[in-house]
Amino acid sequence: MTQYLLLIYGQESTWAELTPDQISAEMGAYFAYTQDLQKAGAYVGANELHPVATAKTVSIETGKQKVVDGPFAETKETLGGYYLIETETLADALAWAARCPGAKFGRIEVRPVVMR
Fold this sequence. Notes:
InterPro entries: Dimeric_a/b-barrel, YCII. This protein is α+β, with helices and mostly antiparallel strands and about 120 residues long. The protein has helices at about 10-15, 20-40, 90-100, and strands at about 1-10, 45-50, 55-60, 65-70, 80-85, 105-110. The chain has a single domain (about 1-110), classed as Dimeric alpha+beta barrel (Alpha-Beta Plaits), CATH 3.30.70.1060. The protein is built from three helices and six strands; from the N terminus they run βααββββαβ. The longest helix has 21 residues, at about 20-40. The protein is flat. It starts with a strand and ends with a strand.
């Protein structure tokens, strides 16, 4: 079994444009997706992230720590959350990524986890 991180990228503004009923429906889709992962034995963990405005990026420049607000990359789509799953094959992980509700509004990056 291999672990894969499903990184959920989308535009934060999309959520602000949804009605309360639409938000409820989307959250219901995420809850159902999580239950499906759990039933299949693929679920390892997941978390939603706070808005990108709360992010900090740390680097070392000339031997000193530098902290800047926001993500490192300037993009319209931001990392909003992730699922850590475990599957037999990459094809299985890609199939789960395609079922993720976030794929309808953004992108799901699938990355294998280095296990040591």
